[in-house]
Specification:
- By secondary structure, the protein is α/β, with parallel strands linked by helices.
- The chain folds into three domains: 2-193, Rossmann fold (3-Layer(aba) Sandwich); 228-343, 3-Layer(aba) Sandwich (Cytidine Deaminase, domain 2); 372-495, AICAR transformylase, duplication domain (Cytidine Deaminase, domain 2, 3-Layer(aba) Sandwich).
- It contains 18 helices and 23 strands.
- A six-stranded mixed beta sheet has the order 10-15-14-13-11-12, sandwiched between helices. Strands 18-23-22-21-19-20 form a six-stranded mixed beta sheet, sandwiched between helices.
- β3 (30-33), α2 (35-43) and β4 (49-50) form a beta-alpha-beta unit.
- α12 packs parallel to α13 (305-311).
């Protein structure tokens, strides 16, 4: 345990500083400060020593240079357990700084405000970031507090431990300081270069999750979850919850009609679009009420009481909607641990990151939505208007479903899908089996494939089940075989030119 004897405080935002500063003074800690922070502390009636009196050098260049001096950084960086360091600080009269409290200039806020370039540049912190890095580097002997968000924790430690900290406590604060520095520099780099940094999500705040894919695995979320979701009630979101939440949002947010998607293990087990949310829910659930148990539900319209009353009969983990009628939310909250969250209308990330081996794979998100302009009729018979509508609906679902996948749709309703199969035939047979197990007829349905058919076997099986139209990317050297079979059997086939693999 090392007791704090002195603290250097230099912050931009003064909110929340007073209790921390008063506690330090109460513990007999000598306070050093600069500029506005010094004036603030003096206004509280606290004794404070100006850094200028230590360095013998005034603040210059309109405050660009205040703390950048050997007497300051020597006082932070010297190693208390080394005789040569002690001899050096005694020789040059370098004071000790056992604690550093810094709040960086608000660079991100300044950029977001639309400020002029010269104003943004002046909010690139130099002295503050240098103080943080120095104190964090010397965490064995110095305690660094790197944001106002840490004031409460710091104050509690001071009160409970009388101004002494363990090595591990200082190490934890040092880690947070380097994360703050990393995030700060990343934002500056992105602004200066004008680039959208794909690693930005890894440089945000870190939130511990209940557990990972399995209870014995630890997990964290790194980023700003509140930018996309506002959790209203329920238990903490888990690793699997978040994966299913993202999948649910991907599935149901396209299209003007009231849409409900029911997600299980990242795939839709029910999905439908209708005139009302209540009707969409009933139709979506009917496709697979068994898999829907314990799933994640997403709606693209505010949740009303009528729909909530129907949903309340089912056990589910998470429900997402743009908003909730007060009476609907009150009803659904009556069952413990249900997670309800509002979807915030914020642009989704442009990149997807995934670990592989000892590195990270980065790719652009698949934002392409197959539309009428993409469709090339490959068969003699063109799909009807109703079939075309269903084909595009099925294609949108297949885009978000794990490969290999086959999706069967009729009347803007997911009838069944085959997901994550090693063979496209297996995926189709899985979908057919699931539909039949719930008494769903495939007569007049359409079929979507996330990739081309290497052989005509899938369209042959589809025809035997009454499926009348097919949508696929095309691109196989044997496309003609599938097209010929469709022509011979009165089926329509359209090609999009866009593959939507999702491994």
């Amino acid at each position: 345990m090392q007791k704090i004897g002195s603290a250097l405080i230099s912050v931009y935002h003064k909110d929340g500083l007073e209790p921390l500063a008063r506690e330090l003074h109460q513990l007999g800690v000598k306070l050093y400060s600069t500029g506005g922070t010094q004036s603030f502390l003096e206004g509280l009636g606290l004794p404070v020593t100006a850094v200028e009196t230590v360095t013998g050098f005034p603040s210059i260049l309109e405050g660009r240079v205040k703390t950048l001096h050997p007497l300051v950084f020597g006082g932070i960086l010297w190693r208390r357990n080394r005789k040569d360091d002690r001899d050096t600080v005694e020789r040059f009269g370098i004071p000790s700084f056992d604690m550093v409290v810094v709040d960086l200039y608000p660079f991100e806020d300044t950029v977001a405000s639309g400020a002029a370039e010269e104003d943004i540049i002046e909010k690139i912190d130099i002295g503050g970031i240098s103080l943080l890095r120095a104190a964090a580097k010397n965490f064995e002997h110095c305690w660094v507090v790197s944001s106002t968000a840490q004031y409460g924790e710091a104050l509690e430690l001071l009160r409970s431990q009388g101004g002494t900290l363990t090595l591990e406590q200082r190490r934890a604060f040092a880690g947070a300081s380097f994360r703050a520095s990393q995030h700060y520099d990343a934002q500056i780099a992105a602004w200066i270069t004008g680039s959208n940094e794909p690693f930005a999500a890894l440089q945000g705040p870190r939130m511990a999750l209940r557990y990972g894919e399995n209870p014995h695995q630890k997990a964290w979320f790194v980023g700003d979850l509140n930018a996309r979701l506002e959790q209203l009630c329920g238990k903490e979101l888990s690793y699997n919850n978040l994966l299913d939440v993202e999948a649910a949002m991907d599935y149901c947010l396209d299209g003007p009609e009231a849409t409900v998607a029911i997600i299980k293990h990242n795939n839709a087990c029910g999905m439908a679009s209708r005139a009302t949310l209540s009707e969409a829910w009933s139709v979506a659930l009917s496709s697979d009420p068994v898999s829907a148990f314990g799933g994640v539900i997403a709606c693209n319209q505010p949740l009303d009481l009528d729909t909530a009353e129907k949903m309340n009969e089912l056990f589910f983990e998470v429900l997402l909607a743009p908003d909730f009628a007060p009476e609907a939310l009150a009803l659904l909250q009556s069952k413990k641990n249900r997670i309800m969250a509002k979807i915030r209308p914020q642009k989704a990330a442009d990149y997807r990151l995934r670990s592989a081996l000892n590195g990270v794979l980065i790719q652009e998100c698949d934002r392409h939505i197959d539309g009428l302009d993409d469709l090339k009729v490959a068969t003699q018979i063109a799909p009807t208007q109703a079939e075309t509508q269903d084909l595009l609906y099925a294609s949108a679902i297949s885009k978000h479903t794990k490969s290999n996948t086959i999706v069967l749709v009729k009347n803007r309703r997911l009838l069944a899908s085959g997901t994550g199969q090693t063979s496209r035939v297996d995926a189709l047979q899985q979908a057919i089996h699931k539909a039949k197990s719930f008494g769903i007829s495939l007569e007049g349905a359409v079929m979507a494939s996330d990739a081309f058919f290497p052989f005509p076997d899938c369209v042959e099986i589809a025809h035997q089940e009454g499926i009348t139209a097919v949508i696929q990317p095309g691109g196989s050297i044997k496309d003609d075989l599938s097209v010929q079979y469709c022509d011979q059997n009165g089926m329509a086939m359209v090609l999009t030119g866009f593959r939507h693999f999702k491994h």
